[in-house]
Design a protein that fits this description.
The chain is built from 19 helices and no strands. The protein is mainly alpha-helical.
Amino acid sequence: TTTIGSVAMMISAIIAGRLVGKIKIKVSMAAGILMSAASMMIYSVADSINVFYFAAILMGTAVSFTCNMPISVLINEWFADGKSGTALGIAFVGSGAGAMVLNPLYSYIIETYGWRISFRAAALCVIILLVPILLFVKEKGLPEDEKRSVIRNDNRLSLSDVIKIPAMWCVFAGFILISLANMAVLNHGVPYMTDNGVDAVKAASFISMGSAALIIGKIVLGRMIDRLGIYKATVFGAIMMLVCILSMWMTGIAGNGAVIGFVIGYGLGAGVATVSMPGVITYMFGNCDFGSIMGLFCTTGGIGGILQIFISMVYDKTGNYNIAWIAVSVIATVTILLYAFMLKPQRKKTLTN
C-alpha cells in the first residue's frame, strides 16, 4: 500500500503542477481534502487487500493536491521578494507537529475502539480541521507583466525546457537521495539500534527527539535560506543530513553518546527535502513555469521512499545493517556533491546556445 500510494503521489503531483494557473488552488486543495477523507473512510470499511490498494491510490493523489505542491505555490506567490524561506519553514512544520499531536490520539483510539474507528476519526479530523482553514486561503496570482510573459512565453523556462537541462536532473537526483536517507532513518533507525543493544523504548525516543528537532530545524533552515541564500543553506542542510546518518551509525556502534549529533543533524538536514525545494527551483530557473516544475520535483519524495526498500534487501541478505548504513552514508555524501556543484542558476539562453 505504501508503494502504491507513493506511485500515485508521483503521478498526481505532475498533474497537480500542470493544473496550476488553470484552476484555482482552492479548488485543487478542496478536491484533495475530499479525496483524503474518502480514502480514510474506504480504509475503515475495507474487507480485502484490493480495497486497501484503491484507498492508497486515492490518498497518494490527495497528498499531491493538498500538501507540498499547492502550499509551495501559494507561498512562492505571496513572498516573491525572495524572502520565502522562513514562511516555507513555518508552513512545513505542520507535518512534524501534526504527527506529534495526532499519532498519540490515533493510537489511543485504536487501542480503545479499534483501527476501523481510528480511520473514521481521521476522516472527520480532515474535514473539521481543513475545510474551515481552506476558507481563509487567499490566492495572490501573478502580476500582469508575468501573466503577459506566460502568454508570450518569452525568456520563461517551461517544464519542457527544464527537463533538457542536465543540471536539473542532478539536483533532482539530490532530492531523491536526501528523501531516501530521510526514509532510511525513520523506517530503519529503531530496528538498527535495537539490533545493537539499545533499548527499544530508548531507540524510539531517539527517533522522536529527531522528529521534534525537525520542527525547529525547518524554521532555522528557512531563516538560513533568507539570510545566506538558497545555495549555502541547502548545501549546509545536506551536510547536516550526513552528520545525522553517521551519528546514527555510531549510536549503534559506540552507544548513546552520538545521539546528540543525530538529533541536531536530522533537525537541520531532513528539512531540505521540503523547505529548500521551492527556493531551489526559483534560484535555478528564475522566471519559470513554477507550478509544473514544482509538480515534477514533488515526485522525488515518492521515488526516495520506494528506493529505500534496498536497505531492507541488504538486511535480508546480510543479517545486519552495517553495509546498508555505509551505502546511505555514501548516498548522503553524493547528495552534498550534487548540490555543491550542480545547484546553479540556469537561463533559457543556455538551451539555445
